[in-house]
Design a protein that fits this description.
Blueprint: H1 6-13, H2 17-25, E1 33-34, E2 40-41, H3 44-58, H4 63-74, H5 80-118, H6 128-135, H7 142-146
Antiparallel strand pairs: 1-2
């Protein structure tokens, strides 16, 4: 394989040059070799590594999780159980976030239902949605007190 410049590597792996430089800076990718004129050059191993990193990020793995997965890939003596355990922990996190998003969906749907039932087309200050959002802390606003379909408020973690 002919050495690649950063733009060619970016196109071939579906990333971009600033991301490649960032991954080098934080040590996910080894520092690139340099050509005359100090231009970065990359080889087949870089293509494989960057493709792996990009795919991990597409699956939502954090930078530290990607670092751990890379260490497993680069160590022929490592066991696949390390990758499985990391993926299993990530799956648990994803499922938790999904549950939070489903609760959020139910709440927003409740807002819309309440608005349709009590105040749609009325004055904005009397809107159930705006009243609930304005009052926070679970305190119902005047428009909400009239509503029979009060939306549930999920408790979301800061990770969402």
């Amino acid at each position: 394989m002919k050495p690649l410049r950063i733009g060619a590597l970016a196109r071939q792996t579906g990333t971009n040059a600033p991301t490649i430089r960032y991954y080098e800076e934080i040590g996910l990718l080894p520092s690139a070799g340099r050509q005359a004129g100090n231009q970065r050059v990359y080889g087949e191993a870089d293509v494989r590594s960057l493709t792996f990193i990009r795919r991990c990020r597409e699956f939502g793995f954090s930078i530290e999780q990607v670092r751990s997965l890379l260490a497993l890939v680069q160590n022929p003596a490592s066991s696949c159980t390390g990758a499985r355990d990391l993926a299993k922990a990530h799956l648990t996190t994803v499922r938790s976030k999904l549950a939070e998003l489903k609760a959020l969906e139910r709440s927003i749907a409740g807002f819309v239902t309440s608005c349709d039932a009590t105040c749609v087309g009325g004055a904005a200050p009397d809107c159930v949605i705006l009243g609930d959002l304005s009052n926070g802390c679970g305190k119902p606003g005047p428009a909400q007190r009239r509503s029979r379909a009060e939306p549930q408020r999920p408790k979301l973690s800061r990770a969402v």
